Amino acid sequence: MAAVSTAGFLGFLMGPPLIGLTASYVSLRGALVWVVLASAVIAVLSPAVQRASAATRVTQVS
What we know:
single chain, mainly alpha, elongated
């Protein structure tokens, strides 16, 4: 739980400056497209991480 909270807090602090930095090199539209693509990658990969986490818990209990 602490790791998820820390990741969310870091995203809250670092997200806007990174979007602004990216927008200064491309455009605001390009920077926001990057955010959408990153979110899509996270959504696609999250089931794999969940399965790996469940497998790790099973081996730790055994």
